[in-house]
Amino acid sequence: MDLIDGNQIATTLIAELKAEVATFTGRKPCLALVRVGEDPASVSYVKKKEKTAAEIGVTSRIILPPVTITQAELFALIDSLNADPAVDGILVQSPLPKHIDEVAVFRRVSPDKDVDGFNTLNLGKVAQEDDTGFVSCTPAGIMELLARSGTDLKGKHVVVLGRSLIVGKPVALLALQKRAGANGTVTICHSGTANLPALTRQADVLIAAIGRADFVTADMVKPGAVVIDVGINRVPDATKKTGYRLTGDVNFAQVSPLCSKITPVPGGVGPMTVAMLMKNTVKAFHLRSAH
Ligand code: GUN
User: Fold this and answer.
1) Half-sphere exposure of 94 (CA within 13 A, CB side)
2) Thinking of the domain 25-111, which architecture would CATH place it in?
3) pLDDT digits (tens, 9 = 90+) for 187-208
4) What is the pTM of this model?
């Protein structure tokens, strides 16, 4: 079994981006990070995004509205960022509080600043295989991990566990695209799927993105499969200073001896998501500077 080292691949990407940004003589790319409330996981993700931006030379603007913000106020904030010529990319960290319609917020972000790729237009471009838009960061990171670890999806059965807008649906569309490295035969499984283990056992490449700790067990995986674990679940652990440990959607101890390649948690998909966000921000900067 080989570990797919997301930290190492992300470090390479970040170094490439840093070298590229260093060549920009005038204004640097600017990313607006909006985090509503104090969700602990979101606090840590936004910090990591801010830190990586600084490392690359991307300016970040952190906006922290209170959890009580109304949808209308959040729309007004996004409108002002959309109109601000100094801002290249906008990210509204998910999850949002229950009283806010998250998809409506994603739609509000101007497509040319939508570095998260959740706007209707950018998701549509993934379906149309149009490269001019933004691909959401986690699915893009998964494709990059597969490519850089030498996994070609052509002729392979790719089984995606989970149909979220953030991961499941877009990664399935990317794996399906008729292009080099992709061209997979794709099945999407979800909470309504009957006899799920029978389907996952057919996977040459299994992408687990359901947000349930240790859900994928040894009996669900074909020997020799490539396993991508997108889960970042916090499970209580009294031996840790933080009181929790991070675990994926895959039972690593059971599954890793079976598969040909697997991503660890942490250190697999997570770091790639941040690297792809920076790549999208630099792309937004180029697109906006071109006109
Ligand atoms: N929450 C979990 N993943 C993501 C992501 O890629 N973008 C945003 N905005 N929120 C998330």
Assistant:
1) 16
2) 3-Layer(aba) Sandwich (3.40)
3) 999 999 999 999 999 999 999 9
4) 0.97
